[in-house]
Amino acid sequence: MSAIVRLLLDAGVQVSGSDANDVPVLESLRAQGATIHVGHDPAHVAGADTVVVSSAVREDNVELAAARAAGLRVLHRSQALASLMSGHVRVAVAGANGKTTTTAMLTSALLEASLDPGFAVGGELMGLGVNARLGTGEAFVVEADESDGTFLAYRPDVAVVTNVQPDHLDFYGSFDAVQAAYALFTESVGTSSQPGSSVEGLLVTCADDDGAWRLACARRDAGARVLTYGTDARADVRLVDVVGDGLTGRARLVADTEAFPELATLDGRELEVSLPGLHNLLDGAAALVAACIGLGAEPDHALAGLAGYRGTRRRFEAKGEAGGVRVVDDYAHNPAKVAAVVEAGRQVCAPGRLVVCFQPHLFSRTRDFADRFAAALAGADVVVLLDVYGAREDPIPGVSSLLVSDALRALAPHVPVHDVVGLDAAVETLADLAVPGDLVLTVGAGSVTSVGPRLLAMLDARVHGTGRPETREESAAG
Q1: Could you confirm whether 429 is annotated as catalytic?
Q2: Where does a domain end: 279, 307, 335?
Q3: Does the active-site annotation cover 466?
Q4: Does residue 64 contact residue 53 with C-beta atoms inside 8 Å?
């Protein structure tokens, strides 16, 4: 929603809004010119012409009820964003995992290529300090949220699908319904091209993911323009010689120039991203193909933009170090994302331990995927498990984070699991567990993001106040 506010302000529209809590982003929106209220009151919509809502706003919200009673125009955030894209080349990035990073990487590549796109990303881009900007260029890049089906509003000219996974089953009901929604999304690609635009419709998908590959095959059979990327031999742009070096990943690109001569400009190039893990290299490859083949960016500049990409907030975001303990925060909240971030943490934690503090997000997701979350967490050395962050959901009887911890203990009995209730308990438990050399990952889409800074403050206080933390050897000897 903050992205919508920033874009509307850039467009010269007067904006007011409200949030249930006084979260940090509100102050930056006020500074940009928005009128922001904390708490909901029917009076807040007085004088408005249009009310924009997110999927998290329930129908009984007093402001939404007042807007409907007054006959105001009410738009979902996706509808507002689609209207802001009017007149631009529409670019949308979808997928269960990696869409925020891919969207941000694509934006970075286009900026480096001096194409100045409009963009709306689900996380603040490091270096720019914002998650959205109107831009002056032809392209408008958005992260297309599939969680409630509203990504169908965008009808992009260029689209990326990173993967298709069984998530958001609280909305869709089944994986078949999820796949059907993605099929409709990809069928819409190129159907709203702007008159006079030089951009030809293009779908970019990952060959490593079966769901995304099936979409590619279906759209090619229908005559659509499709390119694939990945490590799989069937990919049109294949990543080989993949190397992880600390926080940097590198790969060489091998393109099928016989089938797709336009890929010659990418063949043999080295792709580098300043984030660990194969998943981030794959996201970089998707961004590169979309930027260069879909939008005409010069490859040297696009590659430089990807190499210089500094990340987004809450995507393997380094929070700091205290007492020899490093802390990284990540928004991962479904099993595949958690597995990817744990794998990335494993890559950079050596020789120390990987300590993961995970907060399950949504009761329905915890119920549906407890075993898969356990498998994703099994790569950690120690796990601290918070109670479920319900967000928009009411509690479900019998569903708690214990479903995950019980499954983890059964699957990986060698991994110590600490069940905690509340953020205070999480901070104290981590401070007691962590020793110099450890990497602590705070993982989840809820309030767990506040744990890292509090943990660093507590560790720093212990170092400078009550003494340094014990080393691993001292802890074991004790």
Answers
A1: no
A2: 307
A3: no
A4: yes
pLDDT of residue 437: 92
| pLDDT over 80 at 476, yes or no | no
* pLDDT tens digit sequence for 8-41: 999 999 999 999 888 778 888 999 999 999 999 9
Active-site annotation holder among 143, 146, 272, 317: 143
Sheet holding 248-255: strands in order across? 132-133, 118-120, 139-143, 89-94, 158-161, 202-206, 226-230, 237-245, 248-255, 270-273
Domain of residue 22: give its range.
2-78
Residues 63, 173 within the same domain: no
Which residues on neighbouring strands pair with residue 227, listed in sequence order? Answer: 204
Residue 435's nearest CA partner among 325, 321, 322 is: 325
User: Domain check: are 399 and 448 in the same one?
Assistant: yes
Question: Active site includes 99?
Answer: yes
CA-nearest of 253, 283, 186 to 226 is 186
Q: For residue 190, name the pLDDT band (cuts at 50, 70, 90).
A: confident
* Domain identity same for 258 and 322: no
Domain edge (last residue) among 48, 78, 108: 78
CA distance 5 to 109: 24
